[in-house]
Design brief:
The chain is an alpha/beta fold and 236 residues long. The protein has 8 helices and 10 strands. Helix content is 36%, strand content 26%. The structure holds adenosine-5'-diphosphate (2 copies).
């Protein structure tokens, strides 16, 4: 499925990700762990083509997706939708519009203003929100929601694209323990029920152990551990 070979990213002479290679043969739930600065975020951003790799390749189902541009890049980004620590919603826009935002990109604001969203898309958005337990929040502004609810809106926005892969960059780092659990449960369900691959950067080992099938440990830009949570005995 996903085949990553010697992926490297250098910023002004400093190597953030150093020859990272791994394969994902089935849609697993994968946790990437490691201290701050280990290169986790840069790795995910390269997978999503938010950052261009310096060297190395990423291929998905035999297709090279390294350093795509333009329409091909946008298409890839909808197949591997990303969620972020700070949710990255439009705070003053309502929840449904936020969910639909990704489907239309820049045109979304105008589409909402002039009620241009296709009814089917609106229904799909509400269904996804319902599945995540936040359908009743749909008409509210995103900024009126709790952090855990906002992250679920971001997950809904990702699901709206029907992605093969969900990339989550520290999805629970800004949340209290209860909301963190709700968000991780949601990601786990999406993996199990829909068969989507989830790759989540996590800063705690415990979370990775509890939710992930496979753990990739990074340190100084390199992979220093790659295995199941049971094989993980020491800190990374
Ligand atoms: P992590 O997500 O594990 O905390 P990052 O991928 O954010 O690690 O960062 C890895 C290294 O790359 C750090 O040393 C960081 O300072 C550096 N880095 C990340 N993004 C940039 C950037 N845009 N410009 C320069 N250096 C960066
Ligand atoms: P206020 O009542 O403080 O003026 P508004 O609700 O009118 O705030 O929105 C402020 C900004 O947020 C506007 O510039 C508008 O473009 C944007 N915005 C708010 N709601 C939406 C929406 N549903 N779709 C797109 N943009 C929105």
């Amino acid at each position: 499925m996903l085949h990553i070979t010697e992926l490297t990213k250098t910023f002004n002479g400093k190597t953030a990700v150093n020859k990272v290679s791994f394969d994902v043969k089935q849609p697993k739930m994968i946790g990437v762990i490691g201290r701050s600065g280990a290169g986790k975020s840069t790795l995910l951003r390269m997978l999503n083509c938010l950052t261009t790799a310096s060297t190395g390749t990423i291929s998905f189902n035999g297709e090279d997706v390294t350093g795509l541009r333009g329409a091909a890049r946008r298409q890839w980004q909808s197949r591997c939708a990303m969620i972020f620590q700070q949710f990255n919603l439009v705070p003053r826009m309502d929840v449904v519009s936020n969910v639909l935002h990704g489907t239309l990109n820049r045109r979304a604001t105008w589409a909402t203003m002039f009620n241009l969203y296709p009814q089917d898309d609106i229904h799909k958005a509400i269904e996804i929100l319902d599945r995540l337990g936040i359908a009743e929040q749909a008409p509210k502004r995103a900024e009126a929601l709790s952090g855990g609810q906002q992250q679920r809106v971001a997950i809904a926005r990702a699901l709206m694209q029907d992605p093969d892969i969900i990339l989550a960059d520290e999805p629970i780092a800004s949340l209290d323990p209860m909301n963190a659990q709700i968000v991780m449960d949601a990601l786990r369900r999406i993996h199990e029920e829909d068969g989507r691959m989830v790759i989540a950067n996590l800063h705690t080992l415990d979370t990775a152990r509890r939710y992930c099938d496979r753990v990739i440990g990074m340190r100084d830009g390199r992979v220093v551990f790659d295995g199941t949570p049971d094989q993980l005995t020491t800190g990374v």
